[in-house]
Specification:
Layout (H helix, E strand, L loop, with lengths): L1 E3 L2 E3 L3 E3 L8 H9 L5 E2 L3 E2 H4 L19 E6 L3 H14 L3 E6 L4 H5 L10 H15 L5 E6 L6 H17 L3 E5 L13 H11 L3 E5 L5 H11 L3 E4 L8 H10 L10 H19 L1 H15 L6 H9 L4 H11 L9 E4 L5 E5 L2
Parallel strand pairs: 3-11, 4-6, 5-6, 6-7, 7-8, 8-9, 9-10, 10-11
Antiparallel strand pairs: 1-2, 12-13
Length: about 350
């Protein structure tokens, strides 16, 4: 069991907030495949406080999209409280604060991972959010292990971590890379072990390099943390949550998703995307998901190119009919693991 405030999850693996990805359609797709909790993509506090017409996509919550986390990012502590309250009023069950984004333009505007270099400002942000919504919503924080590998960065990390729990946050997610690393090089799981030993029975989730169910379980076993947020590893691969559940319960790893099952999942994802974005935009948005879905197909490069060429719903439906016809005798489906490497084979 994974606990975040009053919420109890029977699977300690959840869908991370993914900028440009984790909209309602992706979250519902993950939930259909066993994810117990999902976060919306990060939203700027300034955007939340703008007129509602500008924030429509992240206000689209449905009864089957709970519990759901809303993640905030910004630079002005005074804006975090009202923004957190707005997300809470919109129906988000958990409010998450982003101190981990390593994107250059974000850092240049003193947001995201930049705040790991400013412990007092970071703690002021947490305090403002907690004062605004902490009496009715769990507050959580997402961090990287520091700005860089210098000892001073690590000291600042632990200053924020300890202060966050002292202020009352329900859980902290720690990504095992530094801000300077961005996504280059391995995630340092040994740091997660150090963090968990430091906080004791407080809730820590890990993040970084979780591209298979085996890796997800290994992170928990090696580090002793309470759960993990799956980020890039679940884009176009919602089956990872079912696979985690099977392995965690002592069952064998399920076979890779058949072509018929892939089609069912992709079609449902597309249908949900149309509801969120409209048919035209959904067709274009699904290209980036399709590139990742294609990795499960025995003709992955051709299918990837087909997804890239999609312009409208007719193109999308034609792609499904051409490449995901369950009556066609396809070569065996092959499971893809870290960074798309082939690791196992199963029936198509």
């Amino acid at each position: 069991m994974l606990s975040i405030g009053p919420f109890q999850f029977d699977l300690p693996f959840v869908q991370a907030a993914l900028s440009g990805y984790s909209d309602l359609a992706m979250r519902r797709t993950a939930r259909r495949h066993s994810a117990p909790y999902a976060l919306n993509e990060v939203v700027l506090d300034k955007i939340v406080l703008q007129p509602s017409r500008k924030k429509k996509p992240f206000l689209q919550l449905t009864p089957d999209d709970h519990p759901v986390g809303g993640q905030l990012m910004g630079s002005n502590p005074e804006e975090f409280g009202p923004a957190a309250l707005a997300l809470s009023d919109a129906g988000y069950d958990i409010i998450d604060i982003n101190f981990g984004c390593p994107v250059k333009k974000v850092l240049g505007r003193c947001r995201g991972g930049f705040l790991l270099s400013q412990p007092e400002t970071a703690l002021t942000v947490i305090r403002e959010v907690f004062h605004a919504v902490g009496h009715k919503r769990p507050v959580t924080v997402k961090m990287r292990r520091g700005m860089d590998d210098e000892p001073e960065s690590e000291r600042k990390f632990f200053r924020i971590l300890e202060g966050a729990f002292d202020l009352g946050v329900a859980a902290v997610t720690v990504h095992g890379r530094t801000v300077k690393q961005r996504y280059v090089g391995p995630s340092q799981w040994s740091f997660l072990t150090k963090v968990k030993k430091f906080v004791g029975d407080r809730t820590i989730l890990g993040s970084g390099d979780l591209f298979s169910a085996q890796l997800c379980l290994r992170m928990l076993e090696e580090t002793g943390i309470d759960g993990a947020t799956i980020a890039r590893g679940c884009i176009g691969n919602p089956w990872i949550f079912e696979e985690c559940r099977a392995l965690l319960s002592g069952k064998p790893l399920p076979p890779p998703p058949s072509i018929a099952r892939q089609r069912e999942t992709i079609q449902a994802h597309f249908d949900d995307s149309i509801l969120v974005h409209g048919a035209g935009l959904a067709s274009r948005i699904m290209r980036k998901f399709g590139i990742k879905y294609a990795e499960h197909h025995p003709h992955n490069l051709k299918v990837r190119d087909a997804f890239i060429s999609v312009k409208d719903p007719d193109d999308f439906n034609a792609l499904l009919d051409r490449w995901y016809d369950p009556e066609t005798e396809w070569p065996p489906v092959q499971r893809r693991d870290t960074f798309g490497d082939l690791v196992a084979a199963g029936a198509g």
